């Protein structure tokens, strides 16, 4: 049987999973890094969908998540979550990062989806130390999957080799 958690090195915008997760900023109106790449690949329909969400509920706080259609992407939906900005580790960053993963998983399930791909949330411009962030990502997802059967596939998408190796090492210690 395929393990439910996998690591892939590459560009998250190319994946034909049910949901890709965007490491958004609170404005939900696009930005750099993976956010910029997702908006470029999805086209203007994604920005319009984000604008509508913003009009309904305002900005997205760190740790929270919202869902939109996926425009031109091969995925069916995009979940936009906001990770914490790293401020040295004493500002609740770890809990907020866990919340970002957990709320994204719950939102995917609530919409009936069974496969999801995550970028390494907060490890770019937001400055979260990579090894610590990868550990939180894998542990939070693993804890969730052991309790919940719906999600069949969770892919951690890494942009560079260093991050890929970090995740690969962590995944060998997991059994889900
Ligand atoms: P944040 O603001 O949450 O730190 P970033 O987009 O700056 O978000 O970076 C998050 C992670 O996404 C980084 O590890 C970065 O290397 C990675 N990344 C950037 N572009 C892509 C992409 N197209 N696909 C997958 N990961 C990406």
Q: What's the total number of strands?
A: 6
For the biggest β-sheet, the strand order reads 1-6-5-2-4-3
The CATH class assignment is Alpha Beta
Helix content: 40-55%
> Could you give the order of the helices and strands?
EEHHEEHEHEH
Which structural class do you get from the secondary structure elements? alpha/beta
Radius of gyration: 15 Å
Low-confidence stretches: none
Shape: globular
Enter the CATH topology name: Leucine Aminopeptidase, subunit E, domain 1
Summed up, what is this model?
The chain is an alpha/beta fold and 176 residues long. The chain has five helices and six strands. It has one domain: Leucine Aminopeptidase, subunit E, domain 1, CATH 3.40.220.
Chain-wise SSE layout:
Blueprint: E1 5-9, E2 19-24, H1 33-42, H2 44-57, E3 65-69, E4 77-82, H3 93-110, E5 115-118, H4 130-147, E6 153-158, H5 161-172
Helix pairs in contact: 3-4, 4-5
The protein binds adenosine-5'-diphosphate (ADP).
Adenosine-5'-diphosphate (ADP) is lined by residues 11-13, 23, 33-35, 37, 83, 119-126, 157, 159, 163.
Can you tell me about this structure?
By secondary structure, this protein is of the alpha/beta class. The protein has one domain: Leucine Aminopeptidase, subunit E, domain 1 (3-Layer(aba) Sandwich), CATH 3.40.220. It contains five helices and six strands. It has helices at residues 33-42, 44-57, 93-110, 130-147, 161-172; strands at 5-9, 19-24, 65-69, 77-82, 115-118, 153-158. A hairpin with a 7-residue loop joins strand 3 (65-69) and strand 4 (77-82). The N and C termini lie close together (11 Å). Bound molecules: adenosine-5'-diphosphate.
């Amino acid at each position: 049987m395929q393990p439910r958690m996998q690591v892939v090195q590459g560009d998250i915008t190319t994946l034909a999973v049910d949901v890709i997760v965007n490491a958004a900023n609170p404005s939900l109106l696009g930005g750099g890094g993976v956010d910029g790449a997702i908006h470029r690949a999805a086209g203007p329909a994604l920005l319009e969908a984000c604008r509508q969400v913003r009009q309904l509920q305002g900005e997205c706080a760190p740790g929270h998540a919202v869902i939109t259609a996926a425009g031109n992407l091969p995925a069916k939906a995009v979940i936009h979550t906001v990770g914490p900005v790293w401020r040295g580790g004493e500002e609740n960053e770890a809990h907020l990062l866990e919340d970002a993963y957990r709320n994204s998983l719950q939102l995917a399930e609530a919409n009936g989806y069974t496969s999801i791909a995550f970028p390494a949330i907060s490890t770019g411009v937001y400055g979260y130390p990579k090894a610590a962030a990868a550990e939180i990502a894998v542990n939070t997802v693993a804890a969730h999957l052991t309790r919940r059967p719906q999600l069949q596939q969770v892919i951690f998408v890494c942009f560079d080799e260093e991050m890929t190796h970090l995740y690969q090492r962590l995944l060998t210690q997991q059994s889900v």
